[in-house]
Amino acid sequence: MSKRKILITLAMVCALSTAAAAEGPKAGGVVNAVIQPEPPSLMVGLVQNGPTQMVAGNIYEGLLRYSPKLDPLPGLAESWTVSEDGKIYTFKLVKGATWHDGKPFTSTDVLFSIEFLKQTHARARGNLVQLDKVEAPDESTVVFTLKQPFGPFIGIFEVGSLPMIPKHLYEGTDFKTNPANNTPVGTGPFMFKEWQKGSFIRLVKNPNYHVKGKPNIDEIYWHVIPDAAARSVAYETGKVDVLPGGSVENFDVPRLSKLKNTCVTGAGWEFFSPHSWLWLNNRAGPTANKKFRQALMFAIDRNMAKDVVWNGLGKVATGPSGSAIKYYTSAVPKYDYDPAKAKALLKEAGYKGEKVRMLPLPYGETWQRWAEMVRQNLQDVGINVEMIATDVPGWNQKVSEWDYDIAFTYLYQYGDPALGVGRNYVSSQIAKGSPFNNVEGYSNPEIDKLFADGAVAFPDAAREEIYTKAQKILVEDVPVAWMLELQFPTITRCSVKNLVTTGIGVNDGFRDAWIEK
Amino acid sequence: MRQVWRMLLRNPGGVIGVAILTIAIAVALFGPLLFPTSPWRMVQRPFLPPFTVANLPLGTDALGRDVMAGIIYGARVSLLVGLISTLASLAVGIPLGAAAGYFGGRVDDALMRFTEFFQTVPSFALAIVLVAIMQPSIVSIVTAIAIVSWPPVARLVRGEVLSLRTREYVQAAVVTGQTNWWIIWREILPNALSPVIVLASLMVATAILLESSLSFLGLGDPNLMSWGYMVGAGRTVIRQAWWITVFPGIAILVSVLALNLIGEGLNDALNPRLAKGGR
């Protein structure tokens, strides 16, 4: 190689590397985000409200993170293995992880967290029912042994589902009143700095974060702005740069999207897959009749709701599972908008104009408009709908006490039918007092058996077969009227890069985010 | 009565008020015949601006519902609520005020303390609480408005009765042995009525405003289209679609103004001094 050629090659290498540097993450900068509504607490082991998870997911960490396809990614565990019979899960923890107060994070913290969450976190408790024992053979190894194979187990280690709690701060204390709850200490990329109630929450960079070179951003301010219109204005005036999903009204999304330097993504909700439906009271009234329930499905124009109420965001739901959930199948009976068919079914059902009470979800304009639209759809086919106005506590009470005929809702699905779908249809989940269980009162021994078998079947192909069957039966029976797979768009300045990279989006996204200058 | 009517019509403000109110009542009564479809029905694309489609002169709202139809059906709700809640508060306020003024003493004390109890609570806050507790519906709204608006009636009637009961013709009635209630009913109330009529016309206006404010806050009857509901539902999209809030807002303004003009006119017409001057 001649001298000249070497020089050229060198120059090219230099040029390439500078180009790469220009495109790579940059350190520094402050991000202003909106948090809506203000979380009651940031201690995610005790409180799991949406906004709590969103802020705390950047302070605390779970053993695993999840890609948008819900494949597990390393978190506090750098690697993991599953035994051949599907019963033993071995996690190797990352080396050098520390709590924000400097104490090392070890396998004893994991054991403690499991015990902690069994007491405080209802969903974690449910996820851990198949757990036989958990052991720590050394400081950086944790072994979970299950009673029987439980396919969804690999999906329960997300930060909001199974956050790691510092043993040295909580052991031997009353968890609920521990003063450490006000100054959350995690292992995550950002540390809690201050919280001006009603105004903002401030997080700062964790300089000792166990992933070298991360995070890039110095500070995050989470602003609390109670009025939806004011949140849009805050973005327009440049006060905030990040509007997480659901923080502005849907009809503002197109206007904000058109602003300069604005990027919108619907990604980052795959793990939750918010699924909306109407609870239909299967116990009494016209909705107890399967034909009537099927008529509702034909009567409601869900495509129009998507286009008009949700501004084209989301997807029409085909059944109990969202399309991002494992073992989802679209090979189920179809309910396209067909008022004539709805009328025919109503006739078959022998409906004679009895009054049907409908509860909208009291979560703001969008939901109110949606309820008005559905009421009109139902009145058009001759159903006598009376809308009942409620506030959030009233809605909770009426739904959990089964005092309704039709009620709007939406729930998270957590990636696997055993974690987030079965609870709404199996008869063991019929119990007053919760608005999240089998509120409709659907009871079918065949479905009970399918969901029980599906949770513990092994391997995956066996589970798929079971859940496909379950979905077909449910869609035929219409225990609830599935509406839309919701999509909550995240709106950011385009200069905020790499914020939404995982299945929970903004909730743990600031780890990898950076600001282009 | 005929004289009062003539006096009212001689007052330009009163004429305008009566004219507007007549139109509003006509719209409330006959409008639904012209717009037979429900105001909740989605008829066109959402956010259609006014004066773009011939049969939708005021455009459509966030769901594509006809704003014109909403205003016409809303007139029914607003006027009905105004009228019924005013009648209800008169039905409470007049007997209480009359009894307090006529019997005086302990009865007066007890009734007036009771009235003051309601007067000291901010009326709108009380109305919100009442509707929220009773669950929003047309009945709870009318009840709440009546409950917060009877105290002024009671106080006014009491004052009138207090001054009238010492008149000679009342004393004469007492001497002839008529019962107390008969005296109040036959002798006193007819003469105390003119300020009450003026007050009532203003109360209808206040009731319409109260209903609109409650609906604006989302405490309206969710099954009835009202002007306040339209303003409240359109408020958040006012930057994209001003017409959704502006037209029902104008409807509220105009009808409340009309009632105030009528009240003003009635006040002049019923005022004996002004009336004499005019004759």
TrEMBL record, chain A:
Residues 72-421 form the Solute-binding protein family domain. It is found in: Periplasm. Coiled coil: none annotated. SUPFAM superfamilies: Periplasmic binding protein-like II. Pfam families: SBP_bac_5. Keywords: Signal. One of its GO terms (molecular function) is peptide transmembrane transporter activity. Residues 1-22 form the signal peptide. GO terms for cellular component: ATP-binding cassette (ABC) transporter complex; outer membrane-bounded periplasmic space. One of its GO terms (biological process) is peptide transport. Belongs to the bacterial solute-binding protein 5 family. This is Peptide ABC transporter substrate-binding protein. It comes from Bradyrhizobium valentinum.
From TrEMBL, chain B:
One of its GO terms (biological process) is peptide transport. It is found in: Cell membrane. InterPro entries: BP-dependent_transpt_permease (IPR050366), MetI-like (IPR000515), MetI-like_sf (IPR035906), OppC_N (IPR025966). Its main location: membrane. It comes from the Bacteria. CDD domains: TM_PBP2. Residues 75-263 form the ABC transmembrane type-1 domain. Pfam families: BPD_transp_1, OppC_N. Keywords: Cell membrane, Membrane, Peptide transport, Protein transport, Transmembrane, Transmembrane helix, Transport. It is a multi-pass membrane protein. One of its GO terms (cellular component) is plasma membrane. The keyword Transport applies. The chain crosses the membrane at residues 15-35, 77-104, 124-148, 197-220, 241-262. Belongs to the binding-protein-dependent transport system permease family. This is ABC transporter permease. It comes from Bradyrhizobium valentinum.
